[in-house]
Amino acid sequence: MLSKEVQLEVNKGMMLPLMEEFYTIQGEGYHTGTAAYFIRIGGCDVGCHWCDVKESWNAELHPPTGIDLIVANASKYSKTIVITGGEPLMWDMTLLTQKLKDKNLNVHIETSGAYPLSGTWDWICLSPKKNKLPTDTIYDNAHELKVIIHNKHDFIFAEEQAEKVNPNAILFLQPEWSKNDEMTPLIVEYVMKKPKWRVSLQTHKYLNIP
Ligand SMILES: C[S@@+](CC[C@H](N)C(=O)[O-])C[C@H]1O[C@@H](n2cnc3c(N)ncnc32)[C@H](O)[C@@H]1O
Ligand SMILES: Nc1nc2[nH]cc(C(=O)O)c2c(=O)[nH]1
Ligand code: SF4
Ligand SMILES: [Mg+2]
Predict the structure, then answer these.
(1) Which stretches in the chain have pLDDT values below 70?
(2) In 3-state terms, what secondary structure has residue 175?
(3) Which of 21, 202, 209 to mutate to test the pocket of ligand 2 (most atoms within 8 A of CB)?
(4) What is the pLDDT of residue 1?
(5) 21-70, pLDDT tens digit by residue?
(6) At which positions is S-adenosyl-L-methionine bound (predicted)?
(7) Alpha helices in 84-133 (DSSP H)
(8) Is the CB of 30 within 6 Å of ligand 1?
(9) What CATH number has the domain bearing residue 30?
(10) How many folded domains does the chain comprise?
(11) Which of 26, 31, 168, 185 has its CA 20 to 30 A from that of 144?
């Protein structure tokens, strides 16, 4: 149980349950191959059965950390900061992103969009989930749509989501890692047939980096 004082700071977004931070290469989507500092915030109740960071789900396992400390640390490593989780939009991102922007950093988010959009973002990667669909506002604001393909039905879901997202969003299909061998050839075939889509691979897993 958090003390009342800490809980109040978390509610304001002055403290956040920090799981891990690491400087790496963005492995997925539009910015693949570029250096970025990742901040992984704990807490997610979307429940994707194939999620590759289930350790992030329980926010109580991750210590509430002051955002000034998070920002001071991040700014030492990179001009581009990726906020991920867990589901970062479960928390109020307003102050964290404001403080990162004050340092002239590029601020990106990886989100399912299942919670209301907060914060100021240079790049929003929306990865919608069937279990808990995105809110309306994030479809209008996403820069990329990255749909995970775990089975054939996910192509239908991807098309439904592409209908909802703003017309400037760049569209990606990414194989679910445990079904990589099965789904990647289907994605390749699909993208050649419907070239509005692009392939996204989890390249950090091939590179053996975080
Ligand atoms: C772990 S999630 C955290 C951010 C947010 N909760 C979300 O789902 O977008 C980061 C990215 O990894 C993707 N992802 C998670 N597990 C995956 C898996 N097994 N295979 C492929 N992509 C996966 C998600 O769809 C998302 O795009
Ligand atoms: N290298 C690397 N790139 C990523 N892109 C999105 C990630 C995430 O877990 O949000 C991720 C990650 O965990 N590592
Ligand atoms: S929404 Fe993201 S963090 Fe949450 S379970 Fe799904 S992939 Fe994992
Ligand atoms: Mg990851």
Answers:
(1) none
(2) strand
(3) 202
(4) 83
(5) 999 999 999 999 999 999 999 999 999 999 999 999 999 999 999 999 99
(6) 50-52, 86, 127-129
(7) 94-102
(8) no
(9) 3.20.20.70
(10) 1
(11) 185
